[in-house]
Each structure stands twice: as structure tokens, then as C-alpha cells.
Amino acid sequence: MKLRTLIADDEPLARERLKLLLAADKEVEIIGECRNGREVLESLKSAPIDLLFLDIQMPGTNGFEVIEDMGLPNMPMTVFVTAYNEYAVKAFEVHALDYLTKPIEPKRLETALSRIKEYFAQKQALMTKDQFAAILSSFQKAQNSDLHRKRILVRNGTKESFIDVNDIEWIEAADYYCCLHVGNKTHMIRESIKQLEQKLDTAKFVRVHRSAIVNIDQIREIHREGRTEGWVILKSDLRLKMSKAGWQKLVAVNQA
Fold first, then answer.
1. Are 22 and 4 in contact (CB under 8 A)?
2. Hey, where are the domains in the chain?
3. The pTM is what?
4. What is the CATH number of domain 151-255?
5. Which of the 8 DSSP states describes residue 200?
6. Omega before 59 cis (within 30°)?
7. How far apart, in whole angstroms, are the C-alpha atoms of residue 250 and residue 242?
8. pLDDT, average across residues 158-174
9. Beta-carbon-side half-sphere exposure of residue 11 (alpha carbons within 13 Å)
10. CATH superfamily of this structure's domain 3-146
11. What is the pLDDT of residue 88?
12. 60 in the Ramachandran plot: left (φ > 0), alpha (ψ -120 to 50) or beta?
């Protein structure tokens, strides 16, 4: 029986290299490729998959978010693929979950496939729910403690400059971009608000609405309208819409 395999990576060359290496194994059948997390979720929901090679860093929805959205019980056997994220790699080593680093080496892939086939033959998952929960926790803690952005690189015409995150008053979502509001200037970066939120200190920046993140030092007043939404008033007198979840986050930060 062949392993129905899905490859998920936003880099075309990385996908091609993995396909070429897997082609030598007659027990592996590649049934699809995905360029981002959204495509992975669609593929997993549309057809049975035995094995998933899942890139961690992808635009939009990353590898960890794919699993959160899909749900652990619905995931196939999964091997993570990473280019440079040493925090994730360390977490996988501690919890014995398999992973591959780019560029993938044939011998390393052969070892991973051998282990996968053994699990598959025994009808066992490559990971248990508890193992994966521990990995997610380790990775998120590493991000929160060590990977908070201090500065953000922005482009202004033909030159680039750094912005201190503490100078940002609020951040506005604009599809796959974000607008950084600093005083009377606005800078646009190619990064979604969801991605940027994960890289900022949550004790300093709070997502008060699906389209807005606020520097809490810039908040002057909070106004609630009913039980579901309200407004935050910045020191600049700007009013930003606040959801119920946003209000709860602000309360949690102030109580911490």
C-alpha cells in the first residue's frame, strides 16, 4: 500500500527537490502540492492523506496554525520542514517528533521515511496529541520570550529604515499588508496583521479588533457600548473600534 503524500511549502524549488527525492521511493505516492496554509487545509478536507510534509513558515497560515485549524485528530502523519527555526528544531528534538531541515538531505529523508513506514504499518500516528501540545507550547514560549520584534524595517521610496516598535501608536490591517501609524506618518509593510501580532510583545501591543492592534501606552480612554463592542480613544484623539475579545485582552493585560 502506497503512502498518499501531500507536500506543503511556499518555495517552488523546495517542493521540486522534495518531489525528486520522494520519486525514488515506490511506496510513496505524491497526490498534491500546496503553496500556503489555506491550500493545505483545503487539500486535507477534500481527500484522504496518509503523510504530510509541512513547512513551518508559510504566508498567511503557518504550519502550526494549519494543525490548530484542522484539529489534531484529523491530521495525517506529519513531518515538519524548516529552514532555520532553531527553536522549533529544539522542541522537536526534545519531544521526538520528526522534522527535516532545508535543503533536505537524501539520507535524512530516507531515515524519516523508514520511521514513517514503521508507524504506518503499525497503524500508529507519527505524533500523539500530548506530544504535539507540548511542542506547540515550547514553540510559542520561545517566540514570546525571545522573538519579540524590537524594530521593523520599512521601505520609503528607494531607501529603507528601521522603526522602533515602541514608537508605533497603532497598526491597521490592509489585506496581506499592515499599516504602521507613527505620529503623522504611515508606513506599509508586506505582512498580515495575524503574522505581525505573533511577533509583537502581547504585554505591549493588544489586538483590539480583527483589523487593529494598539500600543497600550497610547490608549487614553476605553468606551464600551453594550456587551459586544466599544471603542478605544488614543492620546491623539483617534477612535478605534474594539471587539468584545479585544476588550477582554485589554483587561487581561492590565491585570497581569
1. no
2. 3-146, 151-255
3. 0.50
4. 2.40.50.1020
5. S
6. no
7. 10
8. 89
9. 13
10. Response regulator (3.40.50.2300)
11. 53
12. left
